[in-house]
Amino acid sequence: MAKRRVVDVTAEADMTPMIDMVFQLIAFFMVLLNFAEDAQDQRIRLPASELAKPPEGPTESPLNLQLTKDGNVLFNGDEIPVGGMKPYLLREAQVLQRTGRSPDQAHVIIRADGSTPTGKVQELIRSCQENHFEKFSLRARQEKALP
């Protein structure tokens, strides 16, 4: 009888490409989450309204302005008094014009704290209008309908 040789064949998969792909996906989702949270600040407590409804869809050229209860605007990581917004709005209008769009096509989204005086919201809208921004949306928290 002939002796059979036992050959131990084991195959190992190279996990390097899979690990690389997982790290790329993690990095992608971290960047994506940071952009999504940039438009909202937890210091802003939106007022409740029965008439509030969610946005119908994404807006073209949105400009997010968040107004604190102290009357300051949170914009691009800075806290700016409402009266000091004109240079920032002018710069945004110039950036839009360089990209072939006009400020009147941009959509200004104002998220004002519920305790913010109405006059500050009006002053912010007036500053935007002086820089040729014409489309505005005010955000509010939707109240749940009572049964």
Layout of secondary structure:
Blueprint: H1 16-38, E1 48-49, E2 62-67, E3 72-75, E4 78-81, H2 86-98, E5 107-112, H3 118-130, E6 135-138, E7 141-142
Parallel strand pairs: 1-7, 2-5, 5-6
Antiparallel strand pairs: 2-3, 3-4
Structural class determined from secondary elements: alpha/beta
Our estimate of the beta-strand percent is: 15-25%
Query: Strand order of the main beta sheet, please?
Result: 4-3-2-5-6
Which CATH top level class of the domain at 48-142 fits? Alpha Beta
- Bulk shape: elongated
Portion in helices: 25-40%
Separation, N- and C-terminal Cα atoms? 88 Å
Largest sheet: 5 strands, mixed
Query: Overall pLDDT, averaged?
Result: 79
- Helix run count: 3
Beta-strand segment tally: 7
Structure description:
- The chain has 147 residues and is an alpha/beta fold.
- The longest helix has 23 residues, at 16-38.
- Helices cover 33% and strands 19% of the residues.
- It is elongated.
- The strands form two sheets. It has a five-stranded mixed sheet with strand order 4-3-2-5-6, covered by helices on one side. It has a two-stranded parallel ribbon with strand order 1-7.
- It has a domain at 48-142: Nucleotidyltransferase, domain 5 (2-Layer Sandwich).
